[in-house]
């Protein structure tokens, strides 16, 4: 919260109330049952999944008795979770029933890629034809080589090789020639996914597959963008409020004008709160829960890289002091795994898995009380169970 514009009749809240409210909404005070995995995924605003293992641990941190197989089954057997690029243009695991909320709700982000193509002098109509041909092929899960072959056959274009890094790939990449440019296949797949026209299917022989969501998801239900945008903003505020427009824009990754337009349409449902002279906003229906929020016992959790609790606000001072900020929010957008104590980061941690043992190393920012060390050991032991490691060792560095 950084908005210092005073609002008459704003509810005054304490940092403890705000922290307890957010922790509760993220299921980081009382873990939910493993059977509520899909609900947890929606409540936390999805699990960022550049590292699939980090997304899985995000779910473990919020549920009781969850097994790794439960997450895999939800993704690939029951299909109640789905993997795709969405908010911030990053990979997430989200509830299948909320696919349209997350994808249509952040669809304006496509304007960023259209602007990028314009600067690179890549004709958008040609890219749209590639995406259309890809979509026609996705009546079942297809691997990248299969998608490339079907695009080539459908449009009568040759498969080419794109050199250089493009779209994050350090080596040559498969693509299609558009004028003087080779547009990468990964770029086509990414844009199809970010537009909600494709999502990840199951791994086949070690390769990712992609499929049309309406062919893959049992709870498929489309939603108009104008409704999805409001619902996605509600989801954000339920989990990460009080927040400002700037916070929301960082979280969703839209252009400032687009984020403002969505926020303005929801303003009749919002209420202002005051925290140390700063104004933030929550859903009016959440005021009673925020007013009554408190911690009755210590809340200590091991959170993985990119955990959604660390990504809800633009300013991170409520989580970590300036002296240790760079140890958590690292260069190039990387976030460290952290030990969270009552809503504040008390340490970073890392793990290494061997055949026999899960080795956990904790690097505190200062002295850790005995009760915190005990809780961290308990968390590490349950993480061992989740990862199905025979033993666990923990070292406080």
Keywords:
397 residues, alpha+beta, Arc Repressor Mutant, subunit A, five-stranded mixed beta sheet, three-stranded mixed beta sheet, 16 helices, 21% strand
Write structural notes for this entry.
With 397 residues, this protein is α+β, with helices and mostly antiparallel strands. Among the domains are: 120-216, Arc Repressor Mutant, subunit A (Orthogonal Bundle); 300-396, no CATH class. Helices cover 40% and strands 21% of the residues. It contains 16 helices and 19 strands. It has helices at 15-25, 37-43, 52-60, 68-77, 99-105, 110-119, 124-137, 144-155, 185-194, 213-216, 225-240, 245-252, 256-266, 287-292, 325-328, 370-387, and strands spanning 11-12, 32-33, 47-48, 63-64, 81-85, 91-95, 142-143, 159-162, 173-178, 181-184, 199-200, 209-211, 270-275, 278-283, 300-303, 338-341, 344-353, 357-364, 391-396. β11 and β12 form a beta hairpin.
Write the layout of secondary structure elements.
Elements: E1 11-12, H1 15-25, E2 32-33, H2 37-43, E3 47-48, H3 52-60, E4 63-64, H4 68-77, E5 81-85, E6 91-95, H5 99-105, H6 110-119, H7 124-137, E7 142-143, H8 144-155, E8 159-162, E9 173-178, E10 181-184, H9 185-194, E11 199-200, E12 209-211, H10 213-216, H11 225-240, H12 245-252, H13 256-266, E13 270-275, E14 278-283, H14 287-292, E15 300-303, H15 325-328, E16 338-341, E17 344-353, E18 357-364, H16 370-387, E19 391-396
Parallel strand pairs: 1-13, 2-4, 18-19
Antiparallel strand pairs: 3-6, 5-6, 7-12, 8-9, 9-10, 11-12, 13-14, 15-16, 16-17, 17-18
Helix pairs in contact: 5-11, 7-8, 7-9, 11-13, 12-13
């Amino acid at each position: 919260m950084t908005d210092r514009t005073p609002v008459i009749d704003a509810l005054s809240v304490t940092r403890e109330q705000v922290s307890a409210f957010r922790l509760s909404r993220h299921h980081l005070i009382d873990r939910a049952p493993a059977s509520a995995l899909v609900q947890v995924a929606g409540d936390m605003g999805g699990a960022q999944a550049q590292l699939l293992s980090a997304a899985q641990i995000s779910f473990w941190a919020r549920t009781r008795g969850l097994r790794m197989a439960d997450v895999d089954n939800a993704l690939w057997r029951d299909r109640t979770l789905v993997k795709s690029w969405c908010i911030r243009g990053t990979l997430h695991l989200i509830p299948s029933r909320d696919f349209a909320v997350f994808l249509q709700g952040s669809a304006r982000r496509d304007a960023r890629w259209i602007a990028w193509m314009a600067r690179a002098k890549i004709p958008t109509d040609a890219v749209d034809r590639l995406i259309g041909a890809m979509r026609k092929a996705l009546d079942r899960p297809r691997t990248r080589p299969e998608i490339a072959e079907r695009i080539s056959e459908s449009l009568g274009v040759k498969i080419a090789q794109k050199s250089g890094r493009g779209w994050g790939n350090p080596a040559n990449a498969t693509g299609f020639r558009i004028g003087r440019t080779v547009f990468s296949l990964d770029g086509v797949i990414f844009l199809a996914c970010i537009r909600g026209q494709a999502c990840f299917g199951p791994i086949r022989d070690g390769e990712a597959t992609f499929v049309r969501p309406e062919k893959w998801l049992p709870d498929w239900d489309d939603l108009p963008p104008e409704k999805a945008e409001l619902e996605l903003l509600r989801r954000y505020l339920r989990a990460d409020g009080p927040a400002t427009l700037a916070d929301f824009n960082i979280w969703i990754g839209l252009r400032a004008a687009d984020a403002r337009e969505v926020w303005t349409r929801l303003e009749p449902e919002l209420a202002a709160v005051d925290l140390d002279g700063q104004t933030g906003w929550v859903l009016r229906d959440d005021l009673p829960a925020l007013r009554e929020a408190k911690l009755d016992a210590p809340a200590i959790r091991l959170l993985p890289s990119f955990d959604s609790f660390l990504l809800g606000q633009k300013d991170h001072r409520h989580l970590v002091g300036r002296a240790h900020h760079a140890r958590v929010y690292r260069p190039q957008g990387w976030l460290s795994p952290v030990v969270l104590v009552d809503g504040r980061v008390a340490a970073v941690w890392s793990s290494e898995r061997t055949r026999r043992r899960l080795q956990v190393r904790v690097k505190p920012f200062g002295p850790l009380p005995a009760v915190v060390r005990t809780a961290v050991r308990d968390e590490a032991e349950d993480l061992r169970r989740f990862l199905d490691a025979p033993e666990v060792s923990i070292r406080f560095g």
